[in-house]
TrEMBL record:
Periplasmic binding protein domain ranges (all copies): 65-321
One Gene Ontology term of the molecular function aspect: carbohydrate binding
Any one annotated GO CC term: outer membrane-bounded periplasmic space
Location within or outside the cell: Cell envelope
Protein name: Monosaccharide ABC transporter substrate-binding protein, CUT2 family
Family named by the database record: Belongs to the bacterial solute-binding protein 2 family.
Signal peptide as annotated in the record: 1-27
Domain of life (superkingdom): Bacteria
Keywords, in A-Z order: Signal
Renumbered residue ranges of the record's region Disordered: 35-55
Alphabetical list of InterPro entries matching this protein: Bact_Solute-Bind_Prot2, Peripla_BP_I, SBP_2_dom
Length: 374
């Protein structure tokens, strides 16, 4: 009887061990949603879920978001980044920022790195098709949603946000022509290779055709980690080429760092005969625009914080499972010194009190987002 009891006990132990082994083998063969590894080949680490269904969409908190920036120099980029951070925090996400320091190949590598690290969603800032296409396609294959800002990419399913660049250029160029009486000599500060610049150049070419008595006498521009300083030095050289009052009517600057550098050069040279018409707006830009001694008199822009916020909203729409457009155009506003108070310095947070349409955009906001505090 004792031997029979021992035999039964031994069989029970063996049966339990076999059952546990079967469960372990089965668990090792599970393929995690969003993982590119075949079943059974993983390390056992559970990867983040990157596909969202209606059932999963009720809670988006804890999503890991990557922001890949071509550069982050200048106050515009800093305020844009502040808007991104603010909105990611609103949704309870975690933001990691990669900065390529104007190196396009580095940006491409950083985008692929973000995909390989299996972020839940990816934002990109600037870059071009050659830089971004491979990484964005890889993100699509991994079911990682992507929203780009200011990039000439056309990939189905990738949402691209732009500022209405042609309209911004038209706003400032028309004011230049009006102030100049439809004639004069101008300097263009612009550079190729950036999506917003290419769109602004279209409006500039149309402008020259419309106003044949306005002549371009010089053109330059490059983006670096010291864009404003480089622009200032080049503008100083042009002022020496055209030292007489009236030889330069105005400067059209297609980017605020260009406008800042040119304004400092002109102001330091004591040239009160030259006006600057720029694009973009930040707190630092606004200080210069309000300064009556500055040649920078007008700019067209979208609130950089709003750009960041709106871009994040579209990414979280995708994470929520919503369908989003492939192209989103933001509405710019025109800002002239004459609209601003002369007795106090204001910030871009206060600019909406003086310029209709500035700041506080609700673009990209959805009803379900109300559960996430602002």
């Amino acid at each position: 009887m004792t031997q029979i009891a021992h035999g039964k006990k031994r069989k029970a132990i063996i049966l339990t061990m076999l059952l546990m082994l079967a469960m372990l083998v089965s668990a090792c063969g599970v393929k995690t949603v969003g993982s590119s590894e075949p079943a059974g080949s993983g390390s056992g680490k559970v990867e983040p879920v990157t596909e969202t269904s209606a059932d999963q969409a009720s809670d988006l908190k804890g999503k890991k978001i990557a922001l890949v920036m071509e550069f982050n120099s200048g106050t515009f980029s800093q305020q844009y980044l502040a808007g991104v951070k603010e909105e990611v925090e609103r949704f309870g996400g975690e933001l990691t920022t990669f900065v390529a320091e104007t190196d396009k190949s580095k940006m491409a590598s950083q985008l692929e790195m973000a995909v390989n690290q299996k972020f839940d969603g990816i934002l990109t800032d600037h870059g071009d098709a050659a830089t971004l296409t491979a990484g964005m396609n890889k993100a699509k294959e991994a079911n990682i949603p992507v929203v780009a800002f200011d990039a000439l990419v056309e990939i189905p399913g990738i949402t691209v946000i732009e500022q209405g660049d042609q309209k911004m250029a038209e706003m400032t160029l028309e004011q230049l022509a009006k102030d100049a009486g439809g004639k004069g000599n101008i300097v263009k500060i612009w550079t190729a290779g950036f999506a917003p610049m290419e769109r602004r150049q279209v409006a500039y070419e149309q402008f020259l055709n419309t106003y044949p008595d306005i002549k371009e006498i010089a053109a330059f521009g490059s983006v670096s980690n010291s864009t404003a300083l480089d622009t200032q030095a080049k503008m100083e050289a042009i002022l020496k080429q055209y030292p007489k009052e009236g030889e330069i009517t105005a400067v059209w600057a297609s980017y605020d760092e260009f406008a800042k550098g040119a304004a400092r050069a002109i102001q330091q040279a004591g040239r009160t005969d030259i006006k600057i018409y720029g694009i973009d707006m930040s707190d630092e830009d606004l200080q210069m625009l309000q300064n009556p001694a500055s040649p920078w008199v007008a700019s067209a822009a979208v609130d950089p914080k709003d750009i960041g916020r709106i871009q994040v909203r579209y990414l979280f729409q995708k994470l929520h499972g919503d369908q989003t457009e492939d192209k989103v155009i933001l509405e710019p506003v025109y800002v002239h010194r004459d609209q601003l108070p002369a007795d106090k310095q204001i910030s871009t947070d206060e600019l909406g009190e003086y310029v209709k349409g500035w700041g506080g955009s609700t673009q990209g906001e959805q009803d379900w987002m109300s559960e996430y505090s602002k």
